[in-house]
UniProtKB/TrEMBL annotation:
InterPro entries: Cu2_ascorb_mOase-like_C, PHM/PNGase_F_dom_sf, PngaseF_C, PngaseF_N, PngaseF_N_sf
Protein's name in the database: Peptide-N-glycosidase
Organism: Sphingobacterium litopenaei
Keywords: Disulfide bond
Keyword Glycoprotein annotated: no
Limits of the Peptide-N-glycosidase F N-terminal domain: 204-383
Length: 555
């Protein structure tokens, strides 16, 4: 009797599809149109388990980290599986997502692949999600984790105009190999899993890790990290792998005070060897070995402009430290204010990939300060797959950089704009170039209240005698960064020094480049001129301008 009962149960299960494995293919939709050339989502499922993957993963043609889901319906756990380029697999377990979303069923039905489906709606991160699901199959499946508990989701729609729709349902003999429920000892906690997956998707090039940058001439020691100018400049040689043309690069600096209470000029820069003489020669052998720029004011402006045979540094990022973030957080307690622990400066520098790819380069950081404690910094370069909209196929040529990063090593302050000549740079192109533009960073400094730090000044850029661009660099948003400035000076007016508007910078911010269109340029010699009406010195206080310029172009 028992034998016949088991045979009956087996026949019943087969008839109604229990134990049967299904394969469902989903394609991307845009504005109600199916995109048949998209990488299809492939779902395998029976009543106990669902696998969510993609065709490129099954074909082993994926180019980045491949992430899949294995759903155990009995325990209601969604296991995430990621496969890296080196074929290493990692897993995590998530029991919260199975029934995370609350759905509102709608009185709306339609047919998809001969199955009657019902509409249900939820919200995911402020996005309206509509699913169309059926209970005509004895299993639970979906092209993602949304709606898994409802039945078989045959269509997923995000904000009305995009989504996934099932284009084929098949009965198959079994699940593909390699998709067993992972053992507990192989499952990572969710934060560790996410961190490993995120970092696997791009190239990380660490440069400085919690390094001190300070003024301490008696204790300047170099190892893998080179230190110059009494310790106010850090430099490291890094190797950048050969990169795909469609890549993007970001530089990220984290800074906190280690004893210096003041706002300081900072710069992240790159040294290349496209000419026989480089800035590194001046750092190693003395700045006097570099070309002088003479405006007739009796000062030698060393290594600041391009010459035939010498290239100045590329400035990747101009930043400004706030007043004592972290180190001085306990000096002033204010009601309703919590001081930040550090400052993170992050900037897209994709326009410089052509001078980095497949090369050994020097990347450095400068913070002008006179404190033995100084600042602590972390610096990292990351390179990500994907085309950069503004820097695709871009070449770069360094033209000028007046920021005196070797301030304690022989470079004077750039007061050259006080002369009639100002800044003039002649450069020669060996061939015609197109889409030329000047990447221009400018900040005004010094002179106390009447100086150029606090007085707007017009910047004018000329190419071959023709005015190309004029603007007045000025920041009025400095008060937004008050919580990074615990020991900024406070005035009787109720303002803090860090609140005050300045010539294109604020304590605790990046100064972004301007991109000035120069058009198509012919081979031969050209001249860039920068004019700024620099204010006069007042006693021992002087105004000056830190400007940097790189020529960006396509060949």
């Amino acid at each position: 009797m028992k034998k016949y009962l088991l045979l009956f149960i087996f026949a019943f299960a087969v008839y109604f599809g229990y134990g049967q494995v299904y394969k469902i293919t989903y394609h991307v939709t845009r504005n109600n149109q199916v995109l048949n050339n998209s990488d299809p989502v492939i779902v395998f499922a029976d009543q106990n388990k669902t696998i969510i993957t993609k065709q490129s993963i099954l074909d082993n043609t994926f180019k980045q980290t491949a992430e899949e889901s294995i759903v155990d319906h009995r325990s209601k756990i969604i296991y995430k599986k990621s496969t890296f380029q080196n074929k290493r697999n990692i897993f995590s377990a998530d029991s919260a997502s199975y029934n995370r979303y609350r759905f509102i069923d709608k009185d709306e039905q339609k047919t998809i692949l001969a199955k009657k489906v019902k509409k249900s709606t939820t919200s995911v991160n402020s996005n309206t999600i509509d699913i169309y699901y059926t209970n005509e199959l004895p299993l639970k499946a979906a092209p993602n984790e949304v709606g898994l508990a409802k039945g078989v989701v045959l269509e997923y729609v995000r904000n009305v105009n995009s989504g996934l729709v099932a284009t084929k349902i098949e009965k198959i003999n079994d699940f593909p190999a390699g998709y067993s429920i992972p053992k507990e000892e192989n499952v990572l906690d969710i934060l560790t899993y996410r961190d490993e997956v995120w970092k696997s998707k791009f190239i990380q090039i660490p440069i400085f890790n919690n390094e001190k940058i300070c003024f301490d001439p008696d204790n300047v020691k170099s190892d893998s990290i080179l230190r110059f100018a009494a310790g106010t400049v850090l430099l490291k040689k890094v190797k950048v792998p050969a990169l795909l043309e469609d890549s993007q690069a970001f530089i990220e600096l984290i800074e906190k005070s280690n004893g210096d209470a003041y706002d300081r000029t900072g710069s992240v820069f790159l040294i290349t060897d496209d000419q026989p003489l480089t800035f590194l020669d001046g750092m190693n052998k003395g700045m006097s070995t570099l070309p002088k720029y003479d405006v007739g004011d009796g000062k030698d402006y060393l290594g600041m402009v391009r010459t035939n045979g010498y290239s100045p540094i590329f400035e990747l990022m101009r930043f400004f430290t706030p007043f004592g973030v972290s180190h001085f957080n306990d000096r002033l307690t204010l009601k309703g204010k919590t001081w930040q622990d550090s400052v993170t400066y992050r900037q897209d520098v994709s326009e410089f990939l052509s001078v980095m790819s497949g090369k050994e380069i020097y990347i450095g950081t400068y913070i002008g300060n006179y404190d033995k404690g100084g600042h602590m910094v972390n610096l990292e370069l990351t390179i990500h797959p994907g085309n950069s909209n503004y820097a695709h196929k871009t070449e770069a040529l360094s033209l000028f950089n007046t920021t005196n990063v070797m301030e304690m090593g022989g470079q004077t302050y750039p007061t050259l704009f006080g002369s009639e000549k100002g800044l003039e740079v002649e450069f020669e192109l060996k061939e015609d170039i197109s889409k030329a533009r000047l990447r221009y960073i400018t900040t005004g400094h010094g002179g106390w209240w009447n100086g150029d730090e606090f007085v707007p000044k017009l910047n004018s850029i000329y190419l071959d005698g023709e005015l190309k661009f004029q603007f007045t660099p000025w920041r009025v948003d400095c008060g937004s960064y008050r919580l990074y400035n615990p020991v900024s000076g406070n005035f009787d007016s109720g303002l803090s020094s860090s609140d005050l508007s300045r010539s294109n910078w604020c304590p605790g911010t990046i100064t972004y480049p301007n991109y000035i269109d120069l058009g198509n340029l012919k081979a031969g010699k050209h001249k860039i001129r920068v004019h700024i009406p620099q204010g006069p010195a007042e006693g021992d206080s002087q105004s000056f301008w830190n400007v940097s310029g790189a020529l960006l172009f396509e060949k």
